[in-house]
Specification:
One of its GO terms (biological process) is regulation of erythrocyte differentiation. Keywords: Calcium, Dioxygenase, Iron, Membrane, Metal-binding, Oxidoreductase, Transmembrane, Transmembrane helix, Vitamin C. It holds the Pfam family 2OG-FeII_Oxy_3. GO terms for molecular function: iron ion binding; L-ascorbic acid binding; procollagen-proline 4-dioxygenase activity. Its cofactor is L-ascorbate. The chain is about 25% helix and about 20% strand. By secondary structure, the chain is of the alpha+beta class. The chain has a domain at about 120-180 and about 260-475: Sandwich (Jelly Rolls), CATH 2.60.120.620. The strands form 6 sheets. Strands 1-2-3-17-13-22-9-8-4 form a 9-stranded antiparallel beta sheet. It has a 4-stranded antiparallel beta sheet with strand order 10-20-15-16, with no helix packed on it. The radius of gyration is 36 Å and the shape is globular. Mean pLDDT is about 75; it is low at about 70-100, about 170-180, about 205-215, about 245-265 and about 460-478.
Length: about 475
């Protein structure tokens, strides 16, 4: 008995001999479930990769729209401050101080993006202010810019045109006809700032007289030679008579569908020079066009003068193209001094049309075939009251609003291409009151080498003479 107790005590002392009683588990037992492949780590990685690619594409699209709308464009000062003179940016320097457009550099003309009809983008054309630019059409590429000029500025332009003197539009219907002018009349027409002296810019790049007419190549070369030999760099009336003739020849500008020059019945017009030596508002118009189009200032500065037209009640213009089709046998009227061909046509890369007043009734600018060709072919050229309503796109004239459209397509290499036939346009009948417009054209030769030769020629000026003569300051307020 004692031995049994001793053995029992030994077993009790050994804690490992008797295992502890099983514990009762609290709660439900966890059941093992095999993980689904839908929630696997590999699937999660693939989903996240596609999500990041989607976000990157959205960011890239936003950046593309941002840089093409010009919202990030910095304002460039248009004029030097009297108190703190600053260097003029390269894009606003005068042609004499700007590098020439060299074909070897493969220069490409900037071209605005329309995106889609109705798209609105912000553009900077004056310091400390932006304007809305709305796409009206993609064929042709057409934009509307409200508030390009203020109402007060529009009134000043009309007053300047009246001070310059309005002349009746030509009644010629055949572009082969010629008009003989006296040397006094020719001098007055070429003297755009009416200072009694002819400068190089007026003779070479702005040698217009009446609607659609230019100096002949022979006379232009004679005048240019006389200017080069004159130490003062300008020509007075007596010097002009000595070196010039009096022949003006009409070009093929503003032709209608039948190939004849269309007539603006009972409308009056004049041309206002936008360069140095003229009213500060006209120079501001030139700078705004340069900033809006983003073209080099040398191209805008050497283009023709702004044409201001007053349409009386009952007046309309037939549908026409502002520019001419490209052809290897033709030369542009603005660069024919650097060409060897006799056939001259108008080469207007783009048009900026300014509405200077709000017509009481009628006077819309119509684009009959904008974005499609559903218009009746037999009435394409007629924009009288009977047919104007059939136009695919009509823009009502509002004072200060500007229209910009390209008359030419791109050639695929960033230069001027074929004529955009969709740019056909005209003025509807003014049914009440009158309408004032100002047309600014940018002349660019489809032949890039010829355009570059022309710019080298007109940028020359005698050593020691300023590009802007001193007498030009006397006419700032004309």
């Amino acid at each position: 008995m004692g031995e049994y107790k001793d053995s029992l005590h030994e077993f009790e002392g050994d804690s490992d001999f008797f295992p502890p009683p099983p514990r009762h588990r609290v709660g439900r037992e966890r059941i093992h479930i095999q993980k689904s492949s839908v929630c696997s780590r590999a699937y999660f990685v693939v989903v996240m990769a596609f999500f990041h690619l989607y976000i990157i594409n959205i960011i890239a699209l936003l950046l593309y729209v941002h840089y093409n709308t010009g919202s990030g464009e910095q304002d460039v000062p248009l004029e030097k401050s009297a108190g703190s003179p600053r260097a003029v940016p390269a894009e606003h320097q005068t042609p004499s101080s700007t590098a020439h457009l060299s074909p070897e550099m493969s220069f490409q003309l900037p071209r605005l993006e329309g995106i889609r009809v109705g798209h609105v983008q912000r553009v900077s054309i004056v310091p400390d202010r932006t304007h809305n630019m709305r796409t009206l059409s993609l064929k042709p590429l057409l934009f509307e810019i409200p508030g390009f000029l203020s109402v007060e500025e529009s009134n000043v332009v009309m007053q300047l045109a009246q001070l310059k003197g309005l002349t009746h539009s030509s009644l010629l219907t055949n572009p082969d006809q010629e008009e003989q002018l006296t040397q006094d009349e020719l001098f007055s027409l070429l003297d755009l700032n009416q200072d009694g002296l002819l400068q190089r810019e007026e003779i070479l790049s702005l040698s217009h007289s009446t609607d659609g007419s230019w100096l002949s190549s022979y006379n232009l070369r004679k005048i240019h030679t006389g200017l080069e030999t004159n130490p003062s760099g300008v020509l007075s009336l007596q010097e002009f008579k000595r070196v010039s003739g009096g022949v003006l020849r009409y070009s093929g500008a503003a032709q209608g569908l039948d190939g004849h020059t269309k007539v603006r019945q009972r409308s009056t017009h004049t041309r206002l020079y936008l360069g140095e030596g003229t009213h500060h508002l006209l120079k501001s118009v030139r700078n705004r066009v340069t900033r809006l189009t983003r073209l080099p200032s040398s191209l805008v500065d050497l283009s023709e003068a702004m044409e201001v037209v007053r349409y009386e009640q009952g007046v309309f213009s037939h549908a026409h193209h502002d520019s001419s089709p490209t052809h290897p046998d033709n030369s542009c009227t603005h660069t024919h001094l650097a060409a060897n061909t006799s056939n001259q046509v108008a080469c207007r890369y783009l048009t900026v049309l300014l509405y200077l007043n709000s017509a009481d009734s009628g006077g819309e600018t119509s684009f009959p075939v904008a974005d499609n060709r559903t218009y009746e072919e037999e009435v394409l050229g007629d924009l009288s009251q009977q047919y104007c309503d059939k136009g695919n796109l009509k823009v009502k004239p509002v004072a200060g609003t500007a229209l910009l459209w390209y008359n030419h397509l791109s050639d695929g290499n960033g230069w001027v291409g074929e004529l955009d036939e969709f740019s056909l346009h005209g003025d509807c009948l003014v049914t009440r009151g009158f309408k004032w417009t100002g047309s600014v054209w940018v002349n660019i030769d489809p032949d890039q080498q010829r355009q570059e030769r022309y710019q080298r020629l007109v940028s020359w000026h005698p050593e020691g003479h300023s590009k802007t003569p001193e007498h030009g300051d006397f006419h700032q307020d004309l």
